[in-house]
């Protein structure tokens, strides 16, 4: 439960961290977008100011070019016509001409006239108003009078000879993709959706980076009266005025493309950071949980060790008390009733006391052996011994119980071993067999030679068989036997295994359902009748004096 | 047969899963002048023996493997005039209290003289 709560908290922290990162990146994205918008506005303002300045310069330059000399301003006046032609001749490649109009807007002279003739009024919005004001002006786009194409017209007031009301010279400029102004605007084109447009007071596109829009009514979003930056549907628009021409400069780009340069990398960064946060957080959570699990495992292991230790103390204290009290009891009753006991009864009581003393000795030896095994300090003194004699001796020294039948081969079975430790193994195996066998059924001990030439000892009882699981655990420390009611420390078979392994042998259990269990062990046979100690070096056992 | 120091011989049942303990108690208490009517190796056999031979005293071990333990046996065989002695290595306040509730006295293994007095009802 605690693990789950911790993992939920860690997960929430990872999500919060990822959320904070996302907020920070989104904030950076917003700031970046604002900066981009300001940059775009500045660029369009600069463009508008530049054009405004150019228009003013153009008016000044044209005024200087024309000069202050008054005009006659009568229809077809030869002098006016010559002067206009002289201007026209200055630029032989020009595709548009000049018009001279009187105060009422009627053409009095002209060059390259195609769409009108002398004596006709110029029908162009704003012309009359501009003539009345007497100021230079750029007239809105309209049908060309000196070219078949639509034009924008620059109008400069001129004086009339004789103090007449005056008139104006009108210079036409084609609204065409290849006009110098349009080419200048086209150079601003970038990206897939960017358009720069110059729109006159009638809403006609007089110059654009999109040639298809030239001379046509501008799209509604370009005519939005607001200046500055604003969004219109899926587009962004920036508009600034060109006061000298009465135009508006309009920048338009699709929103996705406009923000793409900023949001694309930011979005990728956001994704990578969020991914890194999730992965990093996930790994951290995983590592923490693994560590927590490991700590819990360690806690469980320590608890298990503690439980085992307490159980061991409980078992050992009981196992030690049983023979100790038995020994005390038989000695006490013998002494208290010495005169009342027959000779045979005295011997029997003392034999019982001796048996209990031996059991006590065996138990203390097992406990001390286990401690030495655990410390890696169980001493061994190896020598070449006849396994038959060790087995026979162990069987003869056994505790009361079922009879023990010993089967040995006729020929010697030499092994290099510590006879005291082998005796300990056999005593434990016989004690184990005796405790599990019916009193009237013999325990059998057989010494054999295996096909591989190893020595083999089998101890077979007629007690309850072992399950596979019991047999698998039987050689573990503190493992209890097949019958839980049978007393024991659970150390005997563990000690047997460790001693046999230290001799380079192998020990195992053969059991089956029903009565009968055989515990077998093998030992490498010795063909060496040499002195003590050689095997100890080979097997890695400690070589110390037997009483050490 | 000797005669008990105080009072007439008593009829005893001894129950323990350790045969050596039964041998010891049977020998000692017989020499004390009592009659060991029968023995039992587990709780079920002890209850059955009490039903069959109706002893004056039951000496019963606490833990005897599977089946009822000594306290449960005491609870089942208690009757007026019968002494039940819980003879065990496991002595604790909890066990003494449970034994008393079951009508038994607790004698720790290891002292035959204490057991003899308990059999005679001196403790």
Describe this structure in words.
The complex is a heterodimer of chains A (548) and B (123). With 548 residues, chain A is α+β, with helices and mostly antiparallel strands. Chain A has eleven helices and 19 strands. Chain A has a domain at 376-543: Histidine kinase-like ATPase, C-terminal domain (Heat Shock Protein 90, 2-Layer Sandwich), CATH 3.30.565. Chain B has a single domain (11-119), classed as 3-Layer(aba) Sandwich (Rossmann fold). Chain B has five helices and five strands, in the order βαβαβαβαβα. The interface between A and B is medium-sized, with 25 and 20 residues.
Helix and strand layout, with pairings?
The complex is a heterodimer of chains A (548) and B (123).
Chain A: H1 2-66, H2 78-90, E1 98-102, E2 107-110, H3 127-133, E3 137-143, E4 150-158, E5 167-174, H4 180-186, E6 195-199, E7 205-208, E8 228-232, E9 235-242, E10 247-254, H5 255-336, H6 343-375, E11 379-380, E12 383-386, H7 387-396, E13 404-407, E14 414-417, H8 419-436, E15 443-449, E16 455-464, H9 468-473, H10 492-502, E17 506-511, E18 515-523, H11 534-539, E19 542-543
Parallel strand pairs in A: 11-19, 13-15
Antiparallel strand pairs in A: 1-2, 1-5, 3-4, 4-5, 6-7, 6-10, 8-9, 9-10, 12-14, 15-16, 16-18, 17-18
Helix pairs in contact in A: 1-5, 5-6, 6-10, 7-8, 8-10
Chain B: E1 11-15, H1 19-31, E2 35-40, H2 43-53, E3 57-60, H3 70-77, E4 83-88, H4 93-101, E5 104-108, H5 112-119
Parallel strand pairs in B: 1-2, 1-3, 3-4, 4-5
Helix pairs in contact in B: 2-3
